[in-house]
Amino acid sequence: YIDVTTTIGEQIANTQFERGKPLAKMQSNYCCALEKLYGCNNFYFKSKTDDHHYLEVHHFLPREFRNEFPYSIEVMANYIPLCPRCHRMIHRATDDERAIALNYLLSERVKRLEQCGLHTDVELLHKLYHFGTR
Description:
mainly alpha
């Protein structure tokens, strides 16, 4: 658990995330975690910094709720590499569209998250992503 209500805790959490992002991309073989669902090949472009597919790393369990979990969410199981299109979709699409992607990601990640003490289910995930309120 990292108490991010302190400056030091916030710095530790940010450092862990910055260190984890390149590893999350590498572990995904530089592919979007939703590629099997959406066929993201048409959305990729090469990053000028590392010559791989440009990916953004998304916190599956959102950072705004990190103090509500008994263990730190700054773990590799919570870092989801996404192409820019899928990342924007997770944040901006309708609840119905986001539900498909989030439920897929949950099915892919639930065991890894549980091994880190981060228990979640569809109902909690929809609450964390403000379904029905935005």
